[in-house]
Write a structure and sequence with these properties.
This protein has helices at about 5-15, 20-25, 75-85, 110-135, and strands spanning about 30-35, 40-50, 55-65, 90-95, 100-105. The chain is an alpha+beta fold. Strands 1-2-3-5-4 form a five-stranded antiparallel beta sheet.
Amino acid sequence: MAALDNYYQMVENVIKNLGVDPVTCRGEQPGQWNLKRGSASVWVDVWNIQTDNGDRGYFQVMSPVMEIPVDNLGAYCKELLEINHTLYGVAFTINKNWAYVKMIREVEGLDEMELSAMLNRVGFYADDYDDKLKAKYGSVTGGRPV
C-alpha cells in the first residue's frame, strides 16, 4: 500500500488554511473529509487502488449538486454538458440519481497549492450551480446523495 499519510496531512493543512478545523471534517474512514463551501457540501477523499503494477493513490474532490430531475431530464443533461464546456478542470457527473461536480487525479506530484485550488474550484462551482439548477429544474425529493 502506497503511503498516503503525507497527502492526509496536506488535506488537513489546506482545510485549516480555510479557517476550518480539519478534525471536525474527518469522515468515517481515514482519508475522508467533509466540509461546506457556501451552500455546497464538499467531500474530499484520498485512497489507494491496487493494480497489477502495485498501488496507486488518488485524490478526489466532489460535491453533490442536486438529485436528477424526473421532468425535463433531456434538457437537464444537455445543460450539464453545456456547462461542462465552460468549467475549468472540473466536470459534472451523474451517479445514482445525483449530479455532482467532481475532480480526480493521482496523488503523485500533488502539492498543497494544487490541492487547495481543486477544493476551492469544486466548492465554488457547486455553490454557484446548486442554486441555479435547483431554481430552474426544481428540487426533487430532498433525498441525500450516496
